[in-house]
Amino acid sequence: MIPKITLGNNKYNLFLVIIICALIIALITLYGIRLNEDIHDIVQDQFTQQQLLLSKQMSTGIEEFLNQKTINIEILADHLSDTPPDEMIIEFMNVYYHSPGIYVIEFINESGVITMGYPLENIPDKYDLYEHDQANVFEKARDEKKTYITRPFLLMEGGLGVTIWSPVYNGSEFEGVVLAIIKLSDISDRFLQTCDSPEDIYTVDEFGTILYDNADRFQAGDNVAEALNETNPLLLQILNEQMNGSEGIGYYFEGNTSEKKLAAYSPIRWRNLLWSVAVVSPQSDVDALIYSVYVKQVRFIGLSGGFIVLLGLSIILLLTRWNKSLEFEVASKTSEITKSNELLKRANKKLMELDKLKSDFVSMVSHELKTPLTPMKTSAEFLLQNDPDLNVRREMLELIVRNIDRQTRMVNDMLDISRIESGNMRFRKEMQDMDEIINSAIETMKKQSEDKKINITTDIPTDLFKINADKDKLIQVFINLLSNALKFTPSGGNVEIKANESEKYVEVYVKDDGIGIPPDKIDKIFNKFYQIDSTSARLYGGSGLGLAITKSIVEGHGGTIRVESTPDEGSVFILTFLK
Ligand code: ADP
Fold it and tell me: Are the C-beta atoms of 470 and 506 separated by less than 8 Å?
């Protein structure tokens, strides 16, 4: 008995793969959450740094611009002491055109009167500072002998501006002051508004005066430090830092709203002045940036999860298929083994049967070979010792010949069966008349039938078709069948040979009214060495080879042989030959 093998457990595999997938997805999600926190910090930091960098770029740009202008004015002032008055205008034009960004350059003589400058249309000619009580900065530059820069103030032309006052000395002799005006709108146009960034930008000076605000929350020139004290302390804190000249960032809430803003600020140091530029952006910009990273992350986790689930499903599918094919293979191998076991069992049974047949055969052959010897020996001895008359002598000799024939038949049968088994049985076929063959066999068996008083009758059509056959072998077939019919039919019985012809075949019946064959033995009687009664005490002689030889010869002629029989009523052997 082969145990039923089941390979793997599909449900278990499925469960295992689902658990692994879930674990991997959970790990990715956990990692994603931790990464989120890092990303939040990194993005926030990056954004802050970026804003700070932007404010620095602006402040550095403005600082360089203003310092450059100042140096240019100082160089001009230096030159003027050596320049004849009629060439001064050329020097002014040179500076004006080579150093863009200056609104006007003027020369104020030692008495505080504007005597010339460029461009002409911007010059209030003969304007006397002392008359307008505006000479204090002029005097400061003169007395300290160094450039002085004013705080931003409202220009007569409108808008805020700053002035650079650079004294002109010829040796120790004061000749006047070069005054340059720079409009703040020029600075913002160049450095603050040209920037494409959407941020709010404002500049404030060290006293809290707003110099520029692109968001229009403050008016240029307003001082916001006081006003913000109560309304927006956070913004005021930032402004204070800016007014101190610090660089950094700060958060505040816009007006009365809860909109959080980030301000990155950087100082502008210009000689005696300190300004500060701030870049303001809503915190929601950073949040949107972080959110967009989150969305990408969630998408990535979703995609990875989907991929893992797909992978898991494919593995499950593969495992299931693999399992099924293995189970199928095992099942087919098991059934193969069961079949071959069955075959082995049958072969074994057959071998045992053959073994029994062989031992039966040995005892039967020795019996059959010995049986004729006794009458032969008795008759021969009788003939040697006596001198019987002719009739008796003939009878004795006939007895000897019959027994010799019996032994010869026995030996021939054994030779035939061994030829059949080795495939060496040869047929010399020629066209033969069936009735001639049958009559020949009857003739051979005539003596035996007469002895047993059994009548052999025939019913064979005269024009029966000719058959391509080995005559001697077919005669042997009918001799075997007749011999059995006579043997197994009691004295006084009948044996009949009948032939029928149809379109396709010829059938020959050898019928007796003898002892018949039990139904359960019918299948076996064509097996070699088989005899229904194989005991040594059996009534009928024989080798058990006759029908096996007969069947082989009939099949060798393309025919078949079968038997129908009823015990105690008789048997009929039916031979069919195709035409
Ligand atoms: P045997 O030499 O014993 O006759 P066979 O092969 O010719 O061997 O026949 C096998 C057995 O078939 C016989 O021993 C007998 O038992 C049975 N048999 C054959 N022909 C007949 C028949 N006409 N009537 C009854 N039994 C028969």
Answer: no
